[in-house]
Design brief:
about 400 residues; alpha+beta; Ribosomal Protein S5, domain 2; Alpha-Beta Plaits; 8-stranded mixed sheet; 4-stranded antiparallel sheet; 11 helices; 12 strands; about 40% helix; about 25% strand; binds alpha-D-galactopyranose
Length: about 400
């Protein structure tokens, strides 16, 4: 069930229903919107994201034996349990694949100087639509990591928390993602975007105007080969950097690319043009936000989508139709796919005169072509990953 918000008391009761006792700790990590900067993160570029007011809760308590019992009810509200011997780092598949995120976190904790609990009961609950491009995976990674660490009385700074989540994803789940999702989930702040300089792993906040809104149109579509397509784009970008003679694409200029483009395969040129364009757009958006030039920022968002469509080729007919319908509506500053692409969701940045009636009309128009309405969410920016509640013996 996707409740708008769970209270810690509700989470505590859910945990008690499953495990028969109270949790020692409850943590929360938000999902994120990719605001601007598509596939720039693993290319050493800048990116802008916003943590949102939805995410994943983890309730956790240590056990006396050496079993790791992990339950999640965030897929259609059905409880799914994975019970493994402690330190059995076997990758789960099918229905149990969600457990790879906490398992991945456990597998990398020692490398960051944190201990792994011997036995535990664990429950993850979410109000994020899964597979919508709002990064439920980073949210469960960070909420899990915080619970595993904070239960031992230790603190984890947000930059390390983000790196733990990314390592879990890269090294255990085997998705070669950048730091965007985990960085934004760790550093989120209400009414702000998180700006990440991905080359130096530096994080800062950029104030958002108070009179803009985020709308998400989740198509519920996902390309069957999405993981392979993501990894494929990643390797094309690496190939571009190698042919350009730079360590990461963020080190290259449009001039350098122009000089060697005849020697590069056409798709590789297009991927590089997209990434360099996105890097320029993120920089321009930061300057425009500082001047309060929201319409300009909106145009950059839409330009980002057009670049995804034509150059990075990570859009889809569903996403394109939503963007095309949105950008002609007064009150919509701009719209783009958010996240890795190949399905997922569109983000629209709007003013106050775009409200639920207008959003619904877009959904109905979409359903005439694709047979089902998109899920529509109005989201607020929110705070980053945090411990919500500790048992008294941990205080
Ligand atoms: C996914 C990845 C991120 C980033 C985006 C595309 O969300 O997890 O690291 O690469 O795609 O910008």
């Amino acid at each position: 069930m996707l409740l708008d918000n769970w209270t810690t008391e509700q989470i505590r009761r859910k945990f008690a229903d499953v495990f028969g006792h109270a949790p020692e700790i409850i943590t929360f990590a938000p999902g994120r919107i990719e605001f601007l900067g598509n596939h720039t993160d693993y290319n050493g570029g800048p990116v802008l994201g916003a943590a949102i007011n939805r995410g994943v809760w983890v309730a956790f308590a240590r056990r006396a034996d050496s079993r790791w019992r992990m339950a999640s009810d965030y897929r259609q509200g059905v409880l799914h349990t994975v019970d493994v011997a402690a330190y059995e780092f076997v990758k789960q598949c099918g229905e149990a694949a969600w457990a790879n995120y906490p398992l991945g976190v456990l597998s990398v904790l020692p490398a960051y100087g944190y201990s792994v609990p011997d036995g535990f009961n664990f429950l993850a609950t979410s109000n994020l639509p899964v597979g919508s491009g709002l990064s439920s995976s980073a949210a469960i990674e960070l909420a899990s990591a915080l619970a595993f660490i904070a239960v031992t009385g230790r603190h984890c700074p947000p930059d390390i928390l983000a790196q733990i989540g990314r390592s879990a994803e890269n090294d255990f789940v085997k998705v070669p993602c950048g730091i965007l999702d985990q960085g934004v989930s760790a550093f989120g702040r209400s009414n702000h975007l998180v700006h990440i300089d991905c080359r130096h792993n530096q994080f800062e906040h950029v104030r958002l105007p108070t009179d803009v809104n985020f709308w998400i149109f989740n198509t519920h579509t996902k390309h069957a080969l999405v993981d392979g397509l993501y990894a494929g784009r990643h390797s094309e970008c690496r190939q571009a950097a190698t042919l350009l003679g730079v360590a990461t694409l963020a080190d290259a200029t449009f001039g350098q690319l122009e000089a060697v483009r005849s020697l590069m395969p056409e798709p590789v040129v297009k991927r590089a043009l997209h990434v360099l364009g996105e890097i320029a757009r993120v920089r321009e958006a930061i300057a425009s936000l500082a001047e309060g030039a929201v319409p300009r920022v909106g145009k950059l968002l839409t330009a980002s989508h057009r670049s995804s469509q034509k150059l990075f080729e990570n859009s889809s007919p569903e996403l394109n139709m939503l963007v095309d319908s949105l950008v002609v509506i007064p009150g919509v500053y701009g719209a783009r796919l958010t996240g890795g692409g190949f399905g997922g969701a569109v983000l629209a940045l709007t003013g106050q005169d775009f409200q639920a009636v207008e959003a619904r009309a877009v959904g109905v128009h979409y359903s005439h072509r694709f047979g089902a309405e998109p899920q529509i969410l109005q989201l607020r920016s929110g705070e980053g990953a945090r411990v919500l509640n500790k048992a008294t013996h941990l205080r």
